[in-house]
Each structure stands twice: as C-alpha cells, then as structure tokens.
Amino acid sequence: MGLTKESVGKGAAERRLVIRKRSENDRVIALAGNPNVGKSTVFNALTGLRQHTGNWPGKTVTNAQGYCERNEKGYVLVDIPGTYSLFPSSAEEEVARDFICSGDADAVVVVCDATCLERNLILALQTAEISPRVVVCINLMDEARKKGIEIDIDTLQAELALPVISTEARQGKGLDDILATVEKLFEDEKTTSSRRKSSPEELVTEASRIYNLAVVSESGSYTKGARRLDKFFTSRYTAFPMMLLLLAVVFWITIEGANYPSELLSRLLFSLEPPIHQFLSSLHIPEIAVRALTEGIYRTLSRVTAVMLPPMAIFFPLFTLLEDLGYLPRVAFNLDCVFKKCGACGKQGLTTCMGFGCNAAGVVGCRIIDSPRERLIAMLTNSFIPCNGRFPTLISMLLMFFVGTSGGIFRSTLSALLLTLIILLGILMSFAASKLLSLTVLRGIPSSFTLELPPYRRPQIGKVILRSIFDRTLFVLGRAVSVAAPAGLVIWLMANINIADTTLLSICAEFLDPFARILGLDGVILMAFILGFPANEIVIPIVIMAYTMGGTLVDMNNLNMLSALLMENGWNWVTAISVMLFSLMHWPCSTTLMTIKKESQSIKWTILAFILPTAFGITVCALFNFIVNLFV
C-alpha cells in the first residue's frame, strides 16, 4: 500500500513548519534527498547567506530556510533532513516525510547522488506519488565520471516522467537549471501528474528497472584509491593508531598556532581597559560601578575571548576539514564495536567528535541516533569529552608543571601528546559510563545501524573556514561571552564584599577546603569550578583572582609568573594532575545542561547528566590522591 497525505496522521498537522515568506506570492520549494548527496551544498549555493535556521515545532530536528529570486519571482527553499525513504525510521526521516506529505511545499526538488543512483531513485518515486510538482536533481556528476559511471539523462527523464537536471553543486554547475525548471513547472497550467501508489517492493523493482535503462556504463562505484584508504583507516591494526595520531596532530596545530595570537589578542584587549575606565568615569558613573564593569565584567570577557577565540578559530576548521574529507564517518565505523560492547551505538562516535568543539553541540548531534535509549546514553556521557572551554586549563597545567614554558616546537609536540593521552582517558571514561548506564538505568540490547561511508572528497577550504567561523566559532564564543559577563560581575562582588574583614570569596573557599583536600585540590580551586558553571573558560581566571585577593582578574600571559603564583599558594604536580582530572570529569556547563533538558524533555535525565560525570571525577581524584599519599 502506498503512502498518502491522509496516512501521515494527526501528528504531522501539529508539527507544521512556519514558512518565512517575504510576500504572499513566494513559492515554497522543499529540497529532499538521501544523506550525503550534496543537498545542503545545493541549498547553500542557491540561497547564499539569506538563510534562517530553527527547529521543527514539537521536534528537536533542525531545519534551514533560505530565500532566492529568479525573474523577479521569490522562492523560499526549505532544506529538509536527509532521508532514505518516506517510511521513517528516525525523527529526521519522520519530519521529512511529514513536510512532503503536508502539502506546504509547492514543489519538491529531490537531490540524488549520481554515484549510487539506484537507491536514490526510490525516494524520487515515492515523492512523485505525493507531490504534484517534482524535479529530480542528479548531483555529483563529476564524481560519477571519475568512477566511470555514465548516466543517460534523457532516458532517465523519460522513464521517470519527471524533469531531470544534472548538477555538480560543489563547482556551481547546473544550479541555474534547477530554478529554471521549477519556474517552468509553475508556468505550465497542467502540473506534473502524481504517480500510481506503489508498495515498497514495487518501488524497489521500479527503481532497479529505471536504473538499468538509464545507466549506460558503470566501471565500479568504489575506486582503488578509496579502497586502499579505507583499508588503512578502518583496519583493525591501523585504524586506532591513525585516529590517535590525527587527534595529536590537530592538537599540535591548535596549540602551536594559537599561542601567539592568543597573547596578542589578550594584550590588545587589556590595553583597552584604562580608556574604557576613563570614559565611564567621565560619564559621572559611581566609581564602584565603573570598577565592577571594567575589573569584573570587561576583564572576564577579555580573558575568555583571548583564551577561546584563537584555538577555536584553528580547531573548528581542522575538525570541519576532516568532516569534509569523509574521515569522521570512518571514526564512527571504527568505534562501533567498542560502543556496542558498552551497550551503546556506533553513531555515538560522531557525537563524541562533536563534543571536542562543544559538548552542547555534541548533545544536539545525538539526534542522529535512532534508539531513544542509546540516544540518552550518548547525551549523558558526552560531557566526559573535554570541550574547547576546558582545553585552556588542561594546556596551562601541562605547560607549567610538566612540559615547561620554553622549547618551541618540542614543547608543543610534547604538550599535544600529553593532551592526547588525557583526551584518551576521557574517552575511556565515557566508555565506562556508557557501560554503567547500559547495565543499570538504561538497560537494553544495542541496536544495529546503517552507516553510509561517504566517498573521500577534496575539501573546499574557503567554504570550510567561513562555515567554521560563522557557524561554530562565533556561535560558541557568543554563548561563552553571554554567560561569562554576569559570572564576572558575581566574582568581582564576592572578592570585594567583606564580612568581618574577610572577603566573601575567602569565606566560601575556607568552607570548601576540607572536602577539596580529599580530591587533591583546595577550597579556591573547587570554588572556581563551581563559579565556572556558566563557562569552563573562566575557571583559571577565578583562581587567579582569589589568590591575588585584589578582587580583579589579572592578565598573566607569562606562564612563569602564573606558575610562581600557583606554587606560592601550595600547588605542585599532584595539584596540577588533580585539576586536570577534575576538569576532565565534572558537571557539564550550564549551556550543555540546558541543551540536555531541551533534547531529553526530562528533568530526571538532566539531573543524572550533572551527577554522573561529577561522581566519576570525585571518585577518580580521591583515588588518585589516596594512592599518591600512600606511596609518595
């Protein structure tokens, strides 16, 4: 039995997407397609920067809308989630099905991959049964030629009885033909007639028949070079060493490349503080308010920006390059067996990689996991992966207490290797936490999953850099700045409010000190982690403020001076390791917890997301210090 608009049900009407039209005459065009067919590339090329991103009503699935014009006619393009068919098996496929069946789209462009056309044709045939106006876009024609695949577009168009366009979206070829064909469909008085409703078996048979007629030659969809690369990147002997090596290389480039820009940006921002202070004073603002704004809020923002921006501007493009190359899906493939043994899903490997940039982004990425149980496991354990906000603390501890502040490339290399080992510990702890959850509150049998390994592609470096800066770097920085500003004010007030000749900051630190000593920390460090709940980036600045007792955030780019300050307050190599362990495993930041609440729709799981890594961190730190005190 075929799919009909009526068969979608009541739920689809409750999740109707709000279309952002500029005028009543605008046409709505849905971009549909299987995952990894270049659909988003087509969308970005047609809409440019005129895009809006949001969530589907009632669903935590992202949608993107864009606007374009042709011959003074406006078109609203909706990039719907990738789906293999209109019979959904995940939240993404469900909203794609609902949108196509809702009739909200005036036309549907089905983007297909020329290198695996037969499977893609199933979605095109299904869509033609529902929508009266369908255009089939055969993308990646350049890759098909490289693999010896030749497609007869005229035969394909005749057999489908639908308009067919061939494109190379990454090179911008054929994109104008898409809008021209859509425009022609609207000009015709008679719209494309819907196909007869077919069963899934009939659709597969029909897609295979059309494919055999339309594909003139096919020498193999998998090149020898790609086969050799996969043999290397997914082999049981080389897969994990290569993953660790690439991770170390990314960290080395980030550390080496961000060091000087971070110092330069810090000096620039802190040099602006006196003029800002003078300007605010000239407005006759009370001196205490001026100090709170400059010494509290501004210095906190300066420190966070200087620490976060340079490494993020390097790390995120490198991460996106690996994504564009097609390597990250191989990581999920390699980790599938490990996560399966932990009772989780192999797709958690992808969300783990996303957590390196931002745990909140990693939690959102868990939407790709179909099983609700395994999706929860991935969300609850993502905070074991150190995000970009925790890297400054980890790197500072390594440089000051284990590597040294001189040595150039050798120092960066050793720091990258040690940081990789720390990251590896975090990943192992996420495995342990996943196993614990699968044996207790989230018991169940691991589900199998279909993971398509996309072809290796040459990344578009310019687009990668722009996408990384605007979509990731500035987004994460803006989030950190928004929570660091009020946190800086609170910290300054605590450091300047005296109770019986003792600052509120000191009183809180003394209260926490006995418990903190069990973990190898002190009251100031533990309080810094607590006050750093809005953003992990401000933990070390809080420690500096408390130790100087001046109520201000001191800019200490000189690691030798910073190391001396810490050692004067009782720090040693044991303290540094304890700080790194607790930084690796403690409660998620406020943004991550809010994201978990939004994604899980549950206070219970949000509380568990707070308790789980904190319990691991307290246990590991206490055990480490017990062993050290026993033998040292």
Q: Which key features would you list for this structure?
A:
two-stranded antiparallel ribbon; 632 residues; alpha/beta; Rossmann fold; seven-stranded mixed beta sheet; 26 helices
How would you sum up this structure, described in words?
The structure is a single chain. Helices cover 62% and strands 8% of the residues. It is an alpha/beta fold. A seven-stranded mixed sheet has the order 2-3-4-1-5-6-8, sandwiched between helices. A two-stranded antiparallel sheet has the order 7-9. Helix 6 (153-160) packs antiparallel against helix 8. The chain is globular, with a radius of gyration of 28 Å.
* Biggest sheet descriptor: 7 strands, mixed
Tally of strands = 11
| Structural class by SSE content | alpha/beta
Radius of gyration from the CA trace?
A: 28 Å
